[in-house]
Write a structure and sequence with these properties.
Order of helices and strands: HEEEEHHEHEEH
Shape: globular
Number of helices: 5
Radius of gyration: 14 Å
Number of domains: 1
Strand content: 25-35%
Structural class: alpha+beta
Helix content: 25-40%
Length: 138
């Protein structure tokens, strides 16, 4: 049981899209994505390591919005925050609101099961993106 508790948490994928392009994102339809860097906020309350490993795999069945973007982009870095209790409120939404203060939100992306504007954020500069993520994690 203790190992399971440690494997719960939030994560931010820091992603590089080398060229701008239109990407079909499931039910969201075709969306334009600019060349640059993105931060995707997610949670894994039943297996953080497994969820992150899945996102890092190149071959997988598309299940979430992020899967469509990752077919054209690559993860540069993963930031994680352990979460102790399974019943805690939607902490990824709190984290997403923090990122929205300093970054451009991709509306509707990754937030189909909550009321957030989006869980994907854009920045043309990697270091600025990373600093905004670290600030929001505090």
């Amino acid at each position: 049981m203790e190992a399971e508790v440690r494997d719960r948490g939030l994560y931010i994928l820091l992603i590089h899209l080398p060229e701008g392009r239109e990407i079909e994102v499931g039910a969201l339809g075709s969306r334009p994505f600019r060349r640059g860097f993105y931060a995707y906020v997610g949670s894994a309350l039943g297996g953080l390591q497994g969820r992150v490993a899945r996102h890092l795999r190149r071959k997988k069945r598309r299940r979430w919005h992020i899967d469509y973007l990752l077919e054209h982009a690559h993860v540069k870095e993963v930031l994680t925050i352990p979460v102790e209790a399974k019943g805690e409120p939607r902490l990824e939404c709190t984290l997403a609101r923090g990122l929205a203060e300093g970054l451009y939100t991709i509306e509707g992306f990754g937030s189909s099961d909550c009321r957030c504007k989006g869980h994907l954020f854009y920045c043309p500069d990697f270091e600025l993106l990373r600093q905004n993520c670290l600030k929001a994690m505090k």
